[in-house]
Design brief:
- With about 180 residues, this protein is an all-beta fold.
- It is built from one helix and 13 strands.
- It has one helix spanning about 65-70, and strands at about 1-5, 10, 60-65, 75-80, 85, 90, 95-100, 105-110, 120-125, 130-135, 140-145, 150-160, 165.
- It has a five-stranded antiparallel beta sheet.
- A hairpin with a 6-residue loop joins strand 1 (about 1-5) and strand 2.
- The protein starts with a strand and ends in an 8-residue tail after the last strand.
- Mean pLDDT is about 85; it is low at about 5-30.
């Protein structure tokens, strides 16, 4: 057995405590307290499609309050079919981080007017595999996949326990 420099507890590759931290205190009255005492593995074929959805895309939950007892984050995967746009939406008070796995999705929102009297302009962020996107809370946006043949796949992490999605009739500038 070895020890991590910042931990007084020995680390082991296998044994009775795999996935568990025996030094964590129990929290009375906390639902699913046992869920916070182990590391969770969610296999790719067990993602949950029963989560908030927006037309034109499919979200699959991996990490959520329901799946692992998370309290401050949601994480999952989204796919956008070829030649498809999602509906306009925002994610409430959630901060959203996106990692592009495959395809070349575009993230569309309205930019702040420049004071010239012209209205807000549509802004398109063109991405590719390995790119990251950050969407602040309440910012209306949509995802588009202009590729005629390839599906776009992204991994999403949110700062809320569940997949907050507010579908909108159109984009607008967040004041």
């Amino acid at each position: 057995m070895t020890s991590h420099p910042s931990s007084p507890l020995p680390l082991s590759g296998s044994g009775a405590n795999d996935g568990f931290h025996p030094a964590l205190p129990r929290t009375p009255g906390r639902p699913a307290a046992h869920a916070h005492r182990k590391v969770h593995h969610i296999p790719a074929d067990q993602l949950d499609a029963d989560t908030a959805q927006t037309g034109g895309m499919r979200r699959f939950a991996a990490i959520s309050g329901a799946s692992v007892g998370s309290e401050r984050m949601w994480m999952g995967q989204t796919t956008v079919a070829p030649a498809t746009s999602s509906a306009d939406h925002h994610h409430g008070s959630s901060e959203t981080a996106i990692y592009v796995v495959s395809g070349h999705p575009e993230f569309v929102f309205l930019g702040v007017p420049d004071g010239s009297g012209a209205g807000p302009e549509e802004v398109r962020l063109r991405t590719g595999p390995g790119d990251y996107i950050f969407v602040p809370p309440f910012v209306p946006h949509r995802e588009e996949n202009p590729d005629q043949d390839e599906e776009a796949v992204v991994v999403i992490a949110r700062s809320t326990q569940e997949a907050v999605v507010v579908n909108l009739p159109g984009l607008y500038v967040l004041e």
